[in-house]
């Protein structure tokens, strides 16, 4: 019964919080409207989200978010240095294939997004069976080092969070 | 326009605004300078995200320290941009790859199946 | 001091807008033009937020949020159109 009424409790919570942030003031009326939206929208869109993604370990998630934010800042400085001070002919871009240990679609999506936001790498496509990720490196001479860093830094943590 | 909020607050706000502006500038320079489309993709997705992030933090601090009210809209805008930037980058990369690269230009996937933009998934609907 | 920082940042993003306009006109392929448009939207959001601080009014945040959403959807729609030939299948 509760599962029918609230197919995605986490989504309900997030929608309510986002509504409060959009309104930008806390009153009882807006809280009520936010909760109504948070219940109605997941209920109406439930057929499109058949399974509930498993999420655990909020502490690990906070740790992961902090690491990613820090890496975004580092990535910006790295890319800015390459863009500003390296002659164009010296920039060695290359494609790297990263074999994946993750299997759940949500985890792979999170990893691809993280790779795009962090130092000098953009995730381009997935192998058609979902087992490898194609990455473009802005400036890199050692593909194995990139794979090792991504596996050690992000994939291990995502595996703990999602699986 | 505004009364002086104390020197330290002004310095911090100005610092965030200048950092934001600088990274926006880096994104623009990267867009003009780099020669390959995939290389150019790196500059805007990264530099402009932090650039806009810096501006938004500066603006948030401005409203917090000078007007004395908390504004969550900047946080929402920053969150939205951080969530959508990888998706647009991925789409643009795919658009460019289907038009310009052949299967042989990419490294092997190391799996029994090739990359998804050239090969159909095993046993699935070929439209996916 | 905030005024000067604002002027500096706005000048940077103004230059960014010009650069994206240049890429939009010259970019050799469709993917470059889509990228230029996407970057233009992001630059414009930053410019709008800065203008809001300049004017001391929070009214521009709602506008920039809407532009962020419409810009994202339009980029994805453009890419899908180039990739598949139609937007909604």
Automatic annotation (TrEMBL), chain A:
Keyword Metal-binding: no
Keyword annotations from UniProtKB, A to Z: Cell membrane, Membrane, Transmembrane, Transmembrane helix
GO-annotated cellular components: plasma membrane
GO molecular function, one term: monoatomic cation transmembrane transporter activity
Membrane topology: Multi-pass membrane protein
Entry protein name: Multicomponent K+:H+ antiporter subunit E
Family, similarity comment: Belongs to the CPA3 antiporters (TC 2.A.63) subunit E family.
Transmembrane segments: 5-22, 28-49
Subcellular location(s) per record: Cell membrane
Pfam family, any one: MNHE
From TrEMBL, chain B:
Record field: transmembrane: 12-34, 46-66, 72-93
Keywords: Membrane, Transmembrane, Transmembrane helix
Signal peptide per UniProt: none
UniProt region (Disordered), positions on chain: 105-128
Pfam families, alphabetized: PhaG_MnhG_YufB (PF03334)
GO-annotated molecular function: sodium:proton antiporter activity
Entry superkingdom: Bacteria
Name of the protein this chain belongs to: Multicomponent K+:H+ antiporter subunit G
The species this protein was found in: Salipiger aestuarii
Organism classification: Bacteria, Pseudomonadati, Pseudomonadota, Alphaproteobacteria, Rhodobacterales
UniProtKB/TrEMBL annotation, chain C:
Entry keywords, A to Z: Antiport, Cell membrane, Ion transport, Membrane, Transmembrane, Transmembrane helix, Transport
Sequence similarity: Belongs to the CPA3 antiporters (TC 2.A.63) subunit F family.
Keyword Protein transport: no
Organism: Salipiger aestuarii
Name of the protein in question: Multisubunit potassium/proton antiporter PhaF subunit
PANTHER family found in the cross-reference section: NA(+)/H(+) ANTIPORTER SUBUNIT F1, NA(+)_H(+) ANTIPORTER SUBUNIT F
Residue ranges of the TM segments: 6-25, 37-54, 60-83
InterPro entries found in the cross-reference section: MrpF/PhaF-like
Compartment(s) of residence: Cell membrane
GO MF, one annotated term: sodium:proton antiporter activity
The organism's place on the tree of life at top rank: Bacteria
């Amino acid at each position: 019964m509760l599962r029918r009424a609230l197919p995605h409790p986490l989504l309900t919570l997030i929608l309510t919080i986002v509504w409060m942030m959009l309104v930008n003031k806390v009153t009882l009326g807006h809280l009520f409207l936010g909760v109504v939206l948070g219940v109605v929208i997941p209920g109406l869109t439930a057929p499109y989200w058949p399974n509930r993604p498993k999420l655990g370990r909020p502490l690990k998630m906070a740790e992961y978010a902090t690491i990613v934010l820090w890496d975004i800042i580092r990535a910006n400085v790295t890319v800015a240095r390459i863009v500003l001070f390296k002659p164009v002919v010296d920039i060695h871009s290359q494609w790297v294939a990263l074999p994946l240990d993750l299997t759940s679609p949500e985890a792979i999506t999170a990893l691809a997004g993280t790779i795009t936001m962090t130092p000098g790498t953009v995730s381009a496509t997935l192998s058609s069976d979902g087992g490898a990720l194609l990455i473009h490196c802005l400036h890199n001479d050692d593909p194995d080092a990139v794979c090792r860093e991504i596996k050690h830094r992000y994939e291990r943590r995502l595996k703990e969070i999602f699986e | 326009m505004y009364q002086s909020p104390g020197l330290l607050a002004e310095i911090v706000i100005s610092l965030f605004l200048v950092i934001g502006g600088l990274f926006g500038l880096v994104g623009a320079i990267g867009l003009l300078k780099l020669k390959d489309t995939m290389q150019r993709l790196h500059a805007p997705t990264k530099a402009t995200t932090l650039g806009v992030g810096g501006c938004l933090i500066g603006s948030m601090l401005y409203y917090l320290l000078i007007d004395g009210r908390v504004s969550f809209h900047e946080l929402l805008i920053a969150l939205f941009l951080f969530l959508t930037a990888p998706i647009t980058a991925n789409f643009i990369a795919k658009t460019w790859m289907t038009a310009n690269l052949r299967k042989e230009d990419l490294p092997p996937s190391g799996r029994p199946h090739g990359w998804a933009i050239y090969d159909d998934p095993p046993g699935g609907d070929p439209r996916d | 001091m905030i005024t000067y920082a604002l002027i500096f940042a706005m000048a940077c993003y103004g230059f960014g807008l010009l650069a994206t306009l240049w890429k939009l006109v010259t970019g050799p392929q469709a993917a470059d033009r889509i990228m230029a448009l996407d970057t233009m939207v992001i630059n414009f959001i930053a410019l709008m937020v800065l203008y809001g601080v300049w004017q001391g009014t929070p009214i521009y945040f709602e506008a920039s949020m809407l532009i962020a959403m419409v810009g994202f959807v339009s980029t994805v729609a453009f890419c899908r159109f180039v990739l598949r030939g139609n937007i909604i299948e």
